[in-house]
Amino acid sequence: MTPTMVIEIGRQAIEVSLLVSAPLFIAALVTGLLISIFQAATSINEATLSFVPKLVVVFFTLIAAGPWMITMLTDYMQRLYGSIPSIIG
Q1: Phi, psi (5° rounding) for residue 83?
Q2: Which of 7, 8, 18, 66 lies at 20 to 30 Å from 1 by C-alpha?
Q3: At residue 44, what are phi and psi to the nearest 5 degrees?
Q4: pLDDT in tens for each of the 89 residues of the chain?
């Protein structure tokens, strides 16, 4: 196993983790931005007003994007496990 192979495996792991987490992060970011704009416009400074909608949106995003996320993770794991013989030998 060469250092290049280790770096490639690490790069692929980071790439897959970023792709899988991106829908949840984007949903939370957009929701937080919209709630912040609403709070600034109405001068309401309530912490739960920001937290609860983010939680709900992330939950529904997880339901919608969950199958795709699991497919991405299982594909990566199958490729990783399938490449074990070439990594060792």
Answers
A1: -90, 0
A2: 18
A3: -95, 120
A4: 788 998 999 999 999 999 999 999 999 999 999 999 998 899 888 878 888 999 999 999 999 999 999 999 999 999 999 998 888 87
Burial of 33 (0-12, 13-18, 19+ CB in 10 A): exposed
* Distance of alpha carbon 65 from alpha carbon 83, whole angstroms: 27
Which candidate, 34, 35, 2, 64, places its Cα nearest to that of 10? 2
Domain residue limits at 26: 3-88
Instruction: State which amino acid sits at residue 70.
Output: I
Count of domains for the chain? 1
Total-model pTM: 0.80
Q: What is the DSSP letter of 83?
A: T
Q: How many residues does the chain have?
A: 89
Looking only at Cα atoms, what is the longest distance across the chain? 64
